[in-house]
Amino acid sequence: SSLAGIFVPRSKRSVKETAAVNRVKFSMPAGDTQKIYVRIMDLANEDAQALPYPELRDPSLPLPRNKDIDTLQTAGTVAFVVCLLSLCFFSFVRDKSYLFFSGYVLFHFLHYQILNPEMPILDWMPENPFLVAYLWSIFTMGSFVFFLLFGRSFISLPTLSRKTDMFLKYFLVIWTGVTLSQLVVIYFYRADLVSMVTNAVPGMQIDG
């Protein structure tokens, strides 16, 4: 049997490249016939409503390129450059606004590595792909925290309104608590989450 899928460690996948594409390899003599069984649905998940359409493709042919990849790569590059510039500005003027803003755009850059159809972030943790589920929550919720910290520092909120600043602090504590709660939920229900994501994959490519 061959394994494929986003949450399968690279060392266990049939095709180690293109982690975000479900690919398996097989070979057979010309003119022969062979039955192929593809398990694509977890029957324990009653909400699964995926209709797969496997594609048989010569492995020497390049994969079709998703047009969103270039857009996300460009956006990620811009975010990374802005992050570096903000850190440079912070090193000169020591204004925390630049530090918080660099954290904000850095989280956006990392988020793009997950949104990218090729999921390049999996290259950073090939044997622990499920960490993406944790990182998604951290980058999504954390970028909002950095944005609020940036705004608070940029307008000098503590000097403008102590009451509003105190309200913002309480909100940040609650928001951080919600983020940690999400991480706990992901930990205890990760099997169900994997099933949901796996069943949402529209198809599988068979190289032969």
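(ticket continues) Second input and output from the same batch:
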Amino acid sequence: GRLTSWEAHAGLARCDGLRHAPATRLRTGPRRARSDGSRQEGGLQGEAALLSIAEISVALAGFSSVVIALRGAGPAAWSAQDRFGLGNVLGASVGTLVGSLLPFPLSYLGWSDEVVWGITNAAVGVLILAAVGMLVFTVTKSAIPPRTPRVFWSFVASGFLVAVLLLLAALDLVVPGGPALLLFGLIWALVAAFAQLATFVLVSWSAG
């Protein structure tokens, strides 16, 4: 017999649902990396925070160059402590910039987020550990005492702790992986650079 209007409408609805079901599952499914390295939807986790930290590190390096220019005297007239402090500011700024931008090219290789954050955490952890070791070596072997010993050694101790935690996060041991500890490490580097720059500015003003 003939189909009633209700049965015809129900059949069309079922066909329409089957036709659109794969697209719905694709849109609501987990975000996956394509073969060309692009992401199907969403972006890198912590993308906005990483870009903000990169901008701050560039601004800090630029501000330190302005401070150097306003001081007037050339680097030859600076003390060993001044050169040491400004070198730390520029080094921390560049290291923070590299660490905050590193996850982006890695994500375009088509790797999973776990691999991207593992490599980035390990790289930043090694970088901080090397920087802390260089600071300790410079102070103890090169006879360049820090202007604020308590602040200096507190940053050394906290930097060593942050580096160890980042390496553990890279191996997914004890502490969870992901961008959380990376952000803490980058913020630590920015604070350390700002403290060095603030000390340089205060000493310059008091000397003037």
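Agent notes: Helices lie at 5-28, 47-71, 80-101, 103-107, 113-141, 149-170, 180-207. The first helix runs from residue 5 to 28. Closing as not reproducible unless the customer responds.
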